[in-house]
Every structure is written in structure tokens, then in C-alpha cells.
């Protein structure tokens, strides 16, 4: 029933849009005519009353009799290039060009090859192309008497320079991060992987925003089915707007209703390069510094780029620490509630006495207490994030005072609960990409722990496990090296083995070119031993 | 309690039947209905206080009291 | 007309079988109440006996590749008799699922939360299992390795903590019971944990490499067998003559851990392990039931039946026994006989029939 | 019926389940518990009733933060209740205690002497059966009334119950006190031949400065208290069952008494069958000792002196063991588990003599083998005194 109604509504919607666009299409599909004014009128009609569209009419050639016009949008182009490399040569040096009153198609070619000293020039034959060019920062160049126009690329809008990453700060490792500009981003990746096999395919998505999107992958390493799948899903997007890579993520991800994200993102070129080298594909979206990577495995949340730059023991320790802190961040309040309200026999006697003494006179049951604290914490976190930085500091100080001191002294909240929530909060910050799902999971676990104790926690953990292992990200099992088990890949899960020992790429992602190393590399020291032994014998 | 039970069964029916109808799996729908209605009846009886005999105890009766195939507990 | 499109690897089958057997090891009181301090011996003989029964399953799987046990019976005995056998098997899987869910309920109610109504626990437990079954066999077996690893870690950890408590004098005097007790014990061990893996004949068709059936079954049996042996030895050595008095020997063993009043109260590990392993076991049995129903009635999908069968399991596990005592009586006296009908008698008859057909008619039944 | 509808249904299912289950059965907040830290069970005048003293901890008074008023009041409350059995008494004490008694953390179970003479098994059963109680609670027999023991306020600890637990935990320091967990006690009861033992505790001193002290070992015949071992006999018992973990031995030497510290010991008890069919229990003990205190100079660097001390020590150990053996024979209580040893050795023979064990046990032969090794002399290797030649010089001068 409801689906039928929806269909009808959808039908009307589509028709309405068609009506709207019909007018526009009439103009857009128009070929470029020989009369300059006709073309300019079409352009004017297309852009309507927008004042940032500049139409510069001028004349050049012998006796300045050839009328021409440049159409561009102010702010998107580099004005010096237009002045020095387009208008100047035409106005000063073009007198020899045309024979009197003849419009020779070949002169178009001459202008292109001898007069315009810019690198990227394309020819356009209909208005639509020129309009699209203008909108993406090109200059349309119409000449009276020709049924074609030049679309000259001289993009020059304001952009941010490459800066330190804001979210993924590192102690050791490259400090550059992506910017909002697509080309800068592709260049950053090209500088990391200097191989012709690094393919960058561009697409334009978004009927209104016409956002440039670049699919980047390593030919031969990334599996063709994956690239095919990503392209198919991207082509299916019929949205009118793509403003951030988050839009793309939501349109192409496998499990839109899951609390876990199955598409990864990063703002650091080295991270994205590493993922591309493992056989993943990256999707760069113009206008955002966050580059998507797919497929994404659950384990990637726990791997940071720095793990591979520092020494293996400490890196492994950090891995274990991250798993622990994730477990704490989702389980600690639930476990505390389950222990104190259901399974007191599991608490050591001395600790139990301390906890009872702290709870004496607290008006709420432990679940409610934990709920209050968690909600308060989330509010404080959100307030601290959104406010301007100096005020944010003040908010956190006030919050800490209110929660930490006043609530405990007033006997509304027990001190152990404050400790538990504080530990939970701190450990949830260890893995920023997991904050979203950890917050939701924590709530679910707390409710189940409050009603069923440890049994509830176990049930919800099992549910979590089932959910995680049934998820797939672009054909790869989400929980990949753990379930289904890939024993050889356990080198990069709970421990981070030395790089020379990680011979293979993840099987579930790069199954058509699994070998990272050309030959089996021996650890460097044994190589040297061999060399020195050889030296002695000779 | 009965209300809760009925709502659970309605939920199960709502969850499973539409899929069958859409795919035009009529035989599956028949088997489903038989299974569903019989268990609905049994559970309803169970909840209204009638003791349902345990099938395992039935097996135990056959094996132990009729066939004497059991071990002795000591 | 493939009902299950998932493919599983031999590794996963091995660990699933191991995990499935491990599910029963924690509830070993059935056999311990019979053979007391000689249970370790009974485990070994039971293991050897069940290698024989598993040989039957392997032979059946080899003769009828890409068929579940239900399809095999229809191929061997014809449609009508085959369907009768199939329905009996579905009842068997269903009853095992009900009994095992009841075990979980009994444990939680008896030891952790005595005031909780068992139906609430069962609803949650079976709901989670139904979720697992709905996610498909591929997902279900994918975490078996994780479970096996967890339970091995827990067992080794507890073993190390209990070394101080163990007294190997507890194994003596050995072999003092009447011989019938050893027969009974062997039968229980062979029937209740080990040969229950007949249910995996419902899953074998999903194996991607059909040549590895034999290895998978035997390796899985070994994983489960080692666990059972280790647990039994640990419990006897720790509890001594108390072992025949307590209801859940493993649980009481773990409760005894007390190292300087600091490392203590480890029974939570036991509870976690029990829930996880029983969850796996019940979900496999549940899956077999649902798939069996779909295959008997030649249905095109098994997913619509999951929730209904779940309700049947809940209802069955509530009515099945009035108390854990009845359950224990059934477990140590009648259950081995009941299980053997499905584990040894029917598969044996099926194997002999298909062998006879193979020899006399010279056609391979599996190829039809 | 699209995907989002299915998701919606799933969410409803989850919420329905959660709502159904917010019955919160079994939920007890921490402040609704009264944690038991000791249970004392005494005989009453009425034949079918026991007097149960339950010691409840008051956690808010355990953490005294320098407040003088609070430190004066005690951190526990002893609630007494008379009922048919322990379980009833603990339950019915909620008539006067506002919180339900919680036994999950209880460290000790005290039995009064009178009650122990009548048998303890019917009172122990509850502790085995209850799902909250643990198998490693300590069993202690009180000389006199158990309730009185729980009333003695300790100096170092806040709670008498935990104080007694710690006293028992320290058994390794002297090896003259035993520790008996519920598990050990019941395990002995279940064997049928081995007699259970439990430590005894008594109140010393007058009413004002009372203190508790461990005093010997209670010996049970089946579940009835029949007699007790003194401290020396207790250690003799511990030597045999391989539970000596420390302690001191004072040994006479030609030059004064030397105090030896037991570092560790290992003993092995086996049954041997003689030609005539009777059994000999062989007890082999290996002990490592260390010189702890010397009263006069006795040179422990000389090999002959070392072996002399070792022999003396092993004689002391033998005498301790003999004392305990004699006491056990006198009580006809096989506390050592000789019966179990014979059972392990020859089960068939054991079956025939099992019923007559009470009469055979006092006659049983034992063989003692004690090997003591002096492993060190501590941080000094000689008695501190002037060197012999100097002394002679001094004497000469």
C-alpha cells in the first residue's frame, strides 16, 4: 500500500522536475550559432540575473572588425591569465590574421595554435558545454561567425594550501593533509605513488552541484570487480547534490542501517596511499579534504599509519591498547552496572565495601545513574566541540566541576560511577573513527546490562559479533582477518609484525595480486651476516 | 501476557509473510501457515495454563518403559 | 534450487565441529555422575568409538556428495520412507536445540539469577540464535575459530591457575567400578558430545572442497576431544571425590580458584564460555532444523521459517523437563540410547543400503 | 514492504524484547545489601534449634576518615537469630535487619564446640547448596560459643570475621595452625574414612582486653567433634599430609639451643603391603631448613656439626609426627588419609577391610623417613664473638 503511494508521488516529482528542466534543455541543447549575439543571449538567459557572470565583448583582427566575447565567472578564474594570455595577444598581435571579411574555418585553428598562450583549450559546439565549462572555472571564448567556441581552462579560485592534518595528528610521519581542491589531492597521491598503474578516473556526480569525483586505484592490485562495483554504485547516484564525501559514502555503502561505517575515510595522503597499495580504491571528492577508501574492514579502525612507522614492539603494544580501550569504551558502564546490581559475588570484598560506602544514600538505581552520567558527558563533549575554542575550554571546566565535584559531594552520583564514566570517555577518544558506534553501543549495552546483568551483556556481545560478521564492505567480509579467519593476516591484527614479515596483502581485498614483496625478503640482519661470512671466507 | 504473546505472533507473521507473497511462493506460504498456526495454538494453550506433554518425556517413556533400553542409575 | 548459497572453507568446518563439541564439555555432569574419577578413560574410549560412527558419516558424505542427510535418505530409501526418516531427524535436531537452550536457561537460573523467569532468558537466547541463523551459514561458521580460540585460552588460563589445587591422587583408585558403568560412560561420551556432529551432515554440502570432508570431521573431533579430556582431567584432579556430588563440576572447579584472595571469582569466565559455546551449538542445530524443514517440503527458501522454529524451540525447552534433575536422569540413562538411534542406527542402515545398492545394481545412488 | 520497513520491524522487535525484559528480576542495588563477613552457629537449649550469629559489615564505617565519633562505633553488627536451621535463621533475620543478608562474600563459618560434638553436616549442607556461597569459605571451630568469638573486636582489623580469615591465612608462618576450607572438610566427609579436621579458635583474656587466638585442631569422627590436637600434634599432622609451608624448630645442640626455620618441605605418604597381607604406611619427608637463631657459639661450618643439627631436627620432626599419630590412634580418627592411601594401593584388599577400618587404623604400622637439609646460616655464618685465637690471647693476657 505505502509503496504504491510512494511510486505515485515519485512519478509526479519526476514529471515536475522534467517540466522545470524542459526550458533549460531547450537552451542547453542549442548549438552554437554563427551570430555572436545569439550565443551571448542564450548564455545570458541561462545564467539569468547572476551578477558574477562576466561577459567581456571585444574585437580583434584587422581593423578590429572581428567581434568576440569571453564569458567567465568572476572568482573562479585567474584574471591575469585572461588579461595577459588571451586578450592581450588577440588585441595587439592579431591584425595579420583575417583576410577582409572572410570567415575561414581554418583561422579558428590558427588562433588556437598561435595566439592563445594557455595550455588547455578545448573546442565546444553547443551552449551546454560552454556553460558547464564556465561553471567549473573555465573561460568560454566566442568569436562572431564561428559555430564553435573555445573553452579555455584557467581555473584560479581561492584555495587553502596544504596544511597539517586537523584530526589525524601524528608524532612521526608526514604532516601534510588533503585540501578541498581535487587536483591538489590527486597530485598529493601521485607524489606518493609514482607509478603509471595508479589510475585516476573522474566522474561528475550531482545534477545540481556537478561535483568532480575521482576514483583512484592501483591497476593490477585492486580487483577489477571491486572497481566495477564502485563505479556501478557511483553511477547509480541520482542525487542533486554532493557536498562532502559523506554524501557519497551514504549513497554507496553496503549497510546503510548499520551503526558501523563500511567506508573508510582519511585526510592524510600517506594513509590513503597505503590503502591504495593494499588494493583498495580511493574516492576523492572535490570540495572536501576527506578522501574515502573502500572496502573498509573493521580492523582498519585500530590500525593507524603511525603503527607502520614506529618500531614493531611498541606498535603491537599500542594495537592491544587500542583494542582494550575500545572494549572499555563500549563495555565499562554496562559491566559496572551488571557487577554492582547483579553479580556482587564477583567483586573482591574490600572493593565491595568501598563501593557500598560510596553508594550509600544515592537516590537513583545504578542504571539510571550511569545513564545520567553518560548523557551529561555526551552533552559536554558536543558542547566542547561545537563552541569556539576558548569558550569550549570553559564549558569543559564547568562540566568537570559540576560532574566531578558537586554531584558527588551532593550525593547525587557515586564517586565510582564518575570514575567509570571518565575512563569510558577517555578510552573512547583513543579511536576517533569509532566514537559514533561506540556511543550507541554503550547505550544499548547499558540498557541490557541494567535489565539482565551479565547475561544481557553476553547476549548483546553475541549480537554485535553476528552483526559485525554478517556485514560486508564492497564484497569483503567486514571482520575479515578474524572471521572468516585468515591465519596469515593475523600478523597485522593484534600485533603488528615487522614490515619485512608481512609478505602478503589482505586476501579479501587484493586477491588477484596478493604478494607485496617481489621475492621473500629475509630480515636485514641475517642478510648482513651472510655477507660478512662471505667476506671472511674469501 | 496473552496480549504480548499475540503481538509477538503478529510480528512474526508481518515479518515473514509479505516476502512470501511478493515472491509468489504459495507452497511455502501453506507450509508456513500450518507450522505457524499449530505452534500458535500450542503456545496459546501453554499460556492459558494447560500442561503440554513434553515430547522428550514421550521418547523417554517409549525407550525406558516400553522397550527397557535405558541404563540404570545407581 | 539451491537453498543455501553460502560456501564454507574446510578450516571453518573443522573449527565449527570443534566448537560444537566444546559446547557440551562444560555440562559434563551426565557422565561424571556415572564413571566418577575414571571419566578420563571413558572419554578416550568414547573418542575411539565415535571415530567409528564418524566414519559412517564420512562414507555417507562421500557416497552422496552435495547432499544433506535429509536429501541422502530420500535418495537411498525413496521419497516416502526418506521423508519419514527426515521428519524424525528434524525432531531430533529440534529436541537437541531445545535441550541445549534449556541447559543455558538452567545454568543462568540456577547459578546466576535465580529469580529470573526462565522464559525471559530463553527468549533472548533463542532470539540471538535466530539472528545468527538468518545471517546465513557462512556468517555462522565464520566466528567458530574465534570461539575455539577463546575457549582454549580460557581453559589453559584456568588450568594454570588451578595447578596448585590439583592433586593427582584423586585419579586413584582407578577402574574400581562395575564394567557396565564403563560401557554406559563410553556410550554417553560417544553419544552426547561426540556423535552429535551428525548434524554437520546438514552443512557438508556447503563445503567448498568436498574432498576435505574426512579431514574436517576428524580434525574437528580431535579439537573437541582434547578440550573435553582437558576439562575432565582438570575437574577430577581439582575436585576429587566431591566431583560426583556437585551439579556442574566445571563451574565449582572454577569457583575454587583463589590465589592470594586477588585472582579469584573466575566463574565469570565459565559463564562466558558456556554462553558462547552453547550459542554456537544451538544456532547450528537451529539452522539444521530450519534447513531440514525446507528440504523435506521442497521449499525454495528457509528464511521465513526461522522465527517460527525459534518459537517452537522456546516452547519445547520450557516444557521439555520440569527440573534439572529430570534432565540429568534423562542425560545419563536414556539420552545415549535415544541419540544413538539417530547417530548410529539410521546412518548405519542408510550406509548399508546404499552399499548394497551400489554393489548389486552397479549404479552409484549419489549420481541420480 | 521495502527494506526500511523490515528494518523498522527489526527495531520494534528489539524494543519489544527490551521492554519485556525490563522486569529487572534479581536486581539488587549495592546499598540494599548487607554483606556477611562471618557466620557463627551455636547450640541452643531447644533440641531442634540453632542459634545463628550473622556478622554484617557496615561499609560506611569501615572507611573512617579521621572522624572521632565514627571510629568509636564498630563497623559491624552481629545479628542473632534462633531457628530450625541456618538457612531459615538467615532468612528470618530480615525480621529485624532492613537489608537482605548476602552470603556471597562470607569468609568464615564458625561452629560452636557443643554443636560440633553433635555433628555439623546438617548445617554445612546449606553452604554447599546455596548458589551464592562459595566452596572456599573457612571452617573454624570455636572453643566455647561461636557468637562470643564474633563479638571480640580486633585491634588491627575493622571486622572480626575478616580478622579470623587473616589469622587462618597466616597458618604458613608457624605451621601449627591448619586451614580447612569447606571444600577440604566436605571432601574428607565424602571419603568415608578420612576424618575431617578444622582449626580451633578461642578467646583469651578478660572482658576488657580480649583477644582471639588460634588453638590447635579439632578432629572429627564422621561429622562429630571427638577430640583435638594441640599445636605440636597439629604440626605433626601437617608434616604427614604435606602441608607444612614454614615454621620454626628449636633443636638442642651441645652448645645451646638453635632455632631452625623451615624453608620448605615435601612429604610423601604411600601404603606398602607386607607378606602377611597387612599394610605399612611409609611417610617420607624431605625438609630444607635454615639457621634462624643461635644462643651460643656452635660452628655450623663444620660438616659433622651440620649433620648433627640435621639429625636433631629430623628427630624433632619425628617426635612431632609420632605425637600426632598417637593422638589420632587414641581418637581412632584417620585424619591423615591412611585409608585413602591403602585404597589407592590395593582396592580389592581395601574393600575387605573397609568396614573394620576403625579397628585396624590404631594398629597400623608406620615407617618414618625424615631427611633434613640445612640450607644456610642466614646473613652471618658464625655466632658473633671474637675469633678463637684472639679469645685465647685475651684469655692468656
| Tally of separate domains of chain B | 1
Q: For the terminal residues of chain C, how far apart are their CA atoms?
A: 16 Å
- The tally of beta strands of chain B, per DSSP, is 0
Strand % of chain C is under 5%
**What's the total count of β strands of chain C?**
2
Number of domains of chain C: 1
Biggest beta sheet attributes of chain C: 2 strands, antiparallel
Helix content of chain B: over 70%
Q: Label the overall shape of chain B.
A: elongated
Helix content of chain C: over 70%
Low-pLDDT residue spans of chain C? none
- Count, helices of chain B: 3
Which descriptor suits the 3D outline of chain C? globular
What would the average pLDDT of chain B be, to the nearest integer?
A: 85
The CATH superfamily of chain C is known as Hydantoin permease
Strand order of the largest sheet of chain C: 1-2
Description of the structure:
The complex is a heterotetramer of chains A (538), B (74), C (368) and D (397). Chain A has helices at 2-28, 36-47, 79-93, 105-115, 127-135, 182-192, 224-235, 245-252, 269-277, 312-341, 349-359, 366-386, 389-409, 415-428, 435-452, 454-470, 524-537; strands at 53-60, 66-73, 121-124, 138-143, 149-153, 198-205, 211-218, 264-266, 281-285, 291-294, 472-473, 476-477. Chain A has 538 residues and is α+β, with helices and mostly antiparallel strands. Chain A has three domains: 24-153, no CATH class; 182-296, no CATH class; 313-468, no CATH class. Chain B has one domain. In chain B, helix 1 (2-23) packs antiparallel against helix 2. Chain B starts with a helix and ends in an 8-residue tail after the last helix. Chain C is an all-alpha fold. Chain C starts with 9 loop residues before the first helix and ends in a 7-residue tail after the last helix. In chain C, 59% of the residues are buried. Chain D has two domains: 32-63 and 72-229, no CATH class; 231-382, GMP Synthetase, Chain A, domain 3 (2-Layer Sandwich), CATH 3.30.300. Helices cover 37% and strands 29% of the residues of chain D. Chain D has helices at residues 3-20, 59-62, 68-72, 86-92, 113-118, 121-129, 146-150, 160-169, 171-174, 182-191, 231-240, 303-331, 338-345, 347-353, 357-360, 388-396, and strands at residues 33-43, 50-57, 76-83, 100-102, 108-112, 138-142, 197-204, 211-221, 224-229, 248-252, 257-273, 279-294, 365-376. In chain D, strands 1, 2, 3, 4, 5, 6, 7, 8 and 9 form a nine-stranded mixed sheet that branches. A four-stranded mixed sheet of chain D has the order 10-11-12-13. The longest helix of chain D is centred in the C-terminal third of the chain and has 29 residues, at 303-331. The model of chain D has no long low-confidence stretch (mean pLDDT 85). Chains in contact: A-C, A-D, B-C, B-D, C-D.
Amino acid at each position: 500500500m505505502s509503496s504504491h503511494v510512494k511510486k505515485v508521488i515519485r512519478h509526479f516529482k519526476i514529471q515536475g522536475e522534467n517540466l522545470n528542466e524542459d526550458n533549460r534543455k531547450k537552451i542547453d541543447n542549442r548549438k552554437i550559432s554563427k551570430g555572436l549575439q545569439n550565443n551571448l543571449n542564450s548564455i545570458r538567459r541561462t545564467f539569468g540575473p547572476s551578477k558574477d557572470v562576466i561577459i567581456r565583448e571585444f574585437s580583434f583582427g584587422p581593423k578590429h572588425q572581428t567581434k568576440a566575447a569571453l564569458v567567465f565567472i568572476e572568482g573562479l578564474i585567474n584574471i591575469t591569465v585572461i588579461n595577459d594570455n588571451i586578450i592581450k595577444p588577440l588585441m595587439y598581435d592579431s591584425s595579420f590574421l583575417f583576410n577582409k571579411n572572410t570567415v575561414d574555418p581554418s583561422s579558428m585553428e590558427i588562433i588556437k595554435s598561435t595566439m592563445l598562450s594557455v595550455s588547455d583549450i578545448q573546442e565546444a559546439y553547443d551552449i551546454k558545454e560552454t556553460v558547464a565549462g564556465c561553471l567549473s572555472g573555465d573561460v568560454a571564448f566566442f568569436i562572431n561567425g564561428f559555430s564553435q567556441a573555445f573553452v579555455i581552462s584557467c581555473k584560479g579560485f581561492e584555495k587553502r594550501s596544504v596544511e597539517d592534518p586537523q584530526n589525524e595528528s601524528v608524532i612521526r610521519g608526514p604532516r601534510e593533509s588533503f585540501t578541498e581542491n581535487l587536483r591538489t589531492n590527486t597530485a598529493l597521491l601521485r607524489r606518493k605513488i609514482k607509478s603509471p598503474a595508479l589510475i585516476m578516473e573522474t566522474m561528475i556526480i550531482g545534477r545540481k552541484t556537478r561535483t568532480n569525483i575521482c576514483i583512484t586505484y592501483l591497476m593490477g592490485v585492486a580487483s577489477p570487480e571491486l572497481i566495477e562495483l564502485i563505479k556501478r554504485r557511483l553511477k547509480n547516484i541520482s542525487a542533486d547534490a554532493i557536498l562532502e564525501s559523506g554524501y557519497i559514502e551514504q549513497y554507496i555503502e553496503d549497510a546503510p542501517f548499520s551503526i558501523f561505517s563500511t567506508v573508510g575515510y582519511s585526510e592524510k595522503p600517506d594513509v590513503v596511499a597505503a590503502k591504495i597499495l593494499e588494493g583498495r580504491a580511493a574516492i576523492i571528492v572535490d570540495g572536501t579534504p576527506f578522501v574515502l577508501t573502500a572496502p573498509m574492514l573493521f580492523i582498519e579502525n585500530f590500525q593507524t599509519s603511525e603503527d607502520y612507522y614506529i618500531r614493531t614492539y611498541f606498535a603491537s603494544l599500542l594495537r592491544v591498547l587500542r583494542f582494550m580501550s575500545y572494549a572499555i569504551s563500549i563495555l565499562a558502564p554496562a559491566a559496572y552496572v551488571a557487577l554492582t546490581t547483579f553479580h556482587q559475588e564477583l567483586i573482591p570484598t574490600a572493593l565491595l565495601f568501598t563501593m557500598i560506602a560510596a553508594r550509600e544514600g544515592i537516590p537513583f538505581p545504578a542504571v539510571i545513574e550511569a545513564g545520567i552520567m553518560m548523557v551529561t558527558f555526551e552533552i559536554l563533549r558536543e558542547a566542547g566541540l561545537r563552541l569556539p575554542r576558548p569558550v569550549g575550554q570553559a564549558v569543559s571546566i564547568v562540566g568537570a566541576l559540576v560532574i566531578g565535584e558537586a554531584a558527588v559531594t551532593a550525593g547525587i552520583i557515586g564517586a565510582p560511577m564518575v570514575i567509570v564514566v571518565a575512563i569510558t570517555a577517555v578510552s573512547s577518544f583513543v579511536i576517533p573513527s569509532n566514537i559514533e558506534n561506540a556511543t550507541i553501543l554503550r547505550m544499548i549495552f547499558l540498557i541490557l546490562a541494567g535489565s539482565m546483568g551479565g547475561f544481557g551483556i553476553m547476549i548483546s556481545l553475541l549480537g554485535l559479533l553476528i552483526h559485525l560478521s554478517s556485514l560486508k564492505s564492497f564484497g569483503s567480509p567486514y571482520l575479515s582477518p578474524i572471521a572468516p579467519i585468515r591465519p596469515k593476516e593475523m600478523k597485522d591484527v593484534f600485533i603488528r609484525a615487522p614490515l619485512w614479515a608481512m609478505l602478503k596483502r589482505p586476501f579479501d581485498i587484493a586477491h588477484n595480486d596478493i604478494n607485496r614483496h617481489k621475492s621473500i625478503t629475509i630480515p636485514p640482519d641475517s642478510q648482513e651476516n651472510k655477507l660478512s661470512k662471505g667476506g671472511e671466507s674469501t | 501476557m496473552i496480549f504480548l504473546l499475540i503481538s509477538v505472533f503478529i510480528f512474526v507473521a508481518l515479518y515473514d509473510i509479505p516476502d512470501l507473497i511478493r515472491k509468489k511462493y504459495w507452497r511455502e506460504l501453506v507450509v508456513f501457515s500450518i507450522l505457524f498456526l499449530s505452534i500458535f495454538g500450542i503456545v496459546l494453550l501453554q499460556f492459558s495454563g494447560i500442561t503440554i506433554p513434553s515430547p522428550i518425556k514421550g521418547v523417554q517413556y517409549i525407550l525406558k518403559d516400553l522397550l527397557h533400553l535405558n541404563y540404570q542409575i545407581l | 534450487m539451491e537453498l543455501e548459497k553460502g560456501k564454507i572453507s574446510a578450516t571453518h568446518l573443522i573449527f565449527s565441529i570443534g566448537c560444537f563439541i566444546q559446547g557440551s564439555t562444560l555440562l559434563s555432569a551426565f557422565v561424571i555422575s556415572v564413571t566418577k574419577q575414571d571419566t578420563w578413560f571413558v572419554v578416550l574410549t568414547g573418542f575411539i568409538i565415535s571415530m567409528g560412527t564418524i566414519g559412517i558419516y564420512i562414507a555417507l558424505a562421500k557416497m552422496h556428495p552435495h547432499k544433506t542427510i535429509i536429501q541422502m535418505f530420500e535418495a537411498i530409501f525413496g521419497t516416502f520412507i526418506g521423508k519419514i526418516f527426515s521428519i524424525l531427524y528434524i525432531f531430533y535436531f529440534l529436541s537437541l536445540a531445545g535441550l541445549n537452550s534449556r541447559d543455558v536457561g538452567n545454568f543462568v537460573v540456577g547459578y546466576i539469577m535465580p529469580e529470573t523467569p526462565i522464559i525471559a532468558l530463553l527468549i533472548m537466547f533463542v532470539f540471538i540464535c535466530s539472528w545468527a541463523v538468518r545471517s546465513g551459514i557462512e556468517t555462522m561458521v565464520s566466528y567458530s575459530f574465534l570461539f575455539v580460540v577463546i575457549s582454549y585460552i580460557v581453559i589453559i588460563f584456568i588450568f594454570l591457575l588451578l595447578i596448585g589445587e590439583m592433586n593427582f591422587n584423586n585419579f586413584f583408585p582407578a577402574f574400581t567400578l562395575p564394567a557396565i558403568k564403563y560401557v554406559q560412560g563410553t556410550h554417553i561420551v560417544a553419544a552426547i558430545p561426540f556423535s552429535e556432529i551428525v548434524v554437520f551432515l546438514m552443512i557438508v554440502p556447503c563445503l567448498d572442497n568436498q574432498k576435505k570432508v574426512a579431514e574436517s570431521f576428524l580434525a574437528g573431533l580431535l579439537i573437541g576431544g582434547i578440550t573435553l579430556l582437558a576439562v575432565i582431567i582438570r575437574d577430577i584432579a581439582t575436585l576429587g571425590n566431591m566431583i560426583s556430588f556437585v551439579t556442574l563440576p566445571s563451574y565449582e572447579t572454577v569457583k575454587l580458584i583463589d590465589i592470594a584472595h586477588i585472582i579469584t571469582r573466575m566463574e565469570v569466565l565459565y559463564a562466558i564460555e558456556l554462553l558462547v559455546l552453547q550459542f554456537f551449538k544451538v544456532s547450528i542445530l537451529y539452522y539444521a532444523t530450519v534447513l531440514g524443514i525446507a528440504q523435506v517440503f521442497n521449499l525454495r527458501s528457509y528464511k521465513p521459517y526461522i522465527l517460527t522454529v525459534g518459537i517452537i524451540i522456546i516452547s519445547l525447552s520450557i516444557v521439555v523437563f520440569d527440573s534439572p534433575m529430570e534432565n540429568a536422569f534423562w542425560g545419563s540413562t536414556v539420552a545415549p540410547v535415544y541419540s544413538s538411534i539417530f547417530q548410529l542406527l539410521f546412518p548405519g542402515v542408510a550406509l548399508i543400503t546404499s552399499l548394497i545398492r551400489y554393489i548389486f545394481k552397479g549404479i552409484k545412488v549419489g549420481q541420480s | 514492504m521495502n527494506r526500511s520497513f523490515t528494518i523498522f520491524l527489526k527495531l520494534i522487535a528489539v524494543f519489544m524484547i527490551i521492554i519485556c525484559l525490563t522486569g529487572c528480576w534479581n536486581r539488587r542495588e549495592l546499598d540494599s545489601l548487607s554483606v556477611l563477613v562471618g557466620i557463627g552457629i551455636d547450640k541452643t537449649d531447644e533440641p531442634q534449634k540453632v542459634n545463628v550469629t550473622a556478622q554484617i559489615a557496615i561499609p560506611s564505617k569501615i572507611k573512617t576518615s579521621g572522624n572521632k565519633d565514627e571510629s568509636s562505633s564498630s563497623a559491624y553488627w552481629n545479628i542473632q537469630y534462633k531457628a530450625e536451621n541456618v538457612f531459615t535463621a538467615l532468612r528470618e533475620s530480615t525480621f529485624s535487619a532492613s537489608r537482605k543478608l548476602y552470603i556471597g562474600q562470607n569468609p568464615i563459618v564458625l561452629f560452636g564446640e557443643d554443636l560440633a560434638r553433635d555433628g555439623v553436616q546438617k548445617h554445612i549442607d546449606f553452604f554447599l547448596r546455596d548458589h551464592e556461597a562459595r566452596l572456599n569459605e573457612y571452617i573454624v571451630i570455636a572453643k566455647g560459643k561461636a557468637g562470643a568469638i564474633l563479638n571480640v573486636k580486633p585491634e588491627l582489623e575493622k571486622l572480626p570475621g575478616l580478622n579470623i580469615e587473616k589469622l587462618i591465612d597466616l597458618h604458613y608462618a608457624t605451621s601449627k595452625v591448619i586451614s580447612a576450607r569447606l571444600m577440604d572438610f566436605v571432601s574428607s566427609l565424602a571419603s568415608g574414612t578420612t576424618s575431617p579436621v578444622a582449626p580451633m579458635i578461642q578467646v583469651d583474656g578478660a572482658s576488657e582486653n580480649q583477644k582471639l587466638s588460634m588453638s590447635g585442631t579439632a578432629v572429627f569422627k564422621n561429622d562429630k567433634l571427638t577430640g583435638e590436637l594441640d599445636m605440636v600434634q597439629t604440626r605433626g599432622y601437617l608434616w604427614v599430609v604435606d602441608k607444612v609451608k614454614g615454621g620454626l624448630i628449636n633443636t638442642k645442640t651441645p652448645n645451646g639451643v638453635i632455632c631452625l626455620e623451615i624453608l620448605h618441605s615435601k612429604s610423601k605418604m604411600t601404603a606398602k603391603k607386607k607378606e602377611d597381607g597387612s599394610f605399612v604406611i611409609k611417610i617420607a619427608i624431605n625438609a630444607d631448613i635454615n639457621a634462624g637463631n643461635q644462643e651460643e657459639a656452635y660452628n655450623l661450618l663444620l660438616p659433622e656439626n651440620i649433620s648433627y643439627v640435621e639429625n636433631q631436627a629430623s628427630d624433632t620432626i619425628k617426635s612431632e609426627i609420632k605425637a600426632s599419630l598417637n593422638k589420632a590412634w587414641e581418637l581412632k580418627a584417620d585424619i591423615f588419609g591412611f585409608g585413602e592411601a591403602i585404597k589407592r594401593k590395593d582396592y580389592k584388599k581395601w574393600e575387605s577391610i573397609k568396614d573394620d577400618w576403625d579397628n585396624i587404623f590404631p594398629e597400623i604400622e608406620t615407617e618414618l623417613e625424615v631427611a633434613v637439609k640445612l640450607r644456610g646460616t642466614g646473613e652471618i655464618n658464625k655466632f658473633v664473638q671474637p675469633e678463637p685465637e684472639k679469645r685465647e690471647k685475651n684469655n692468656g693476657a
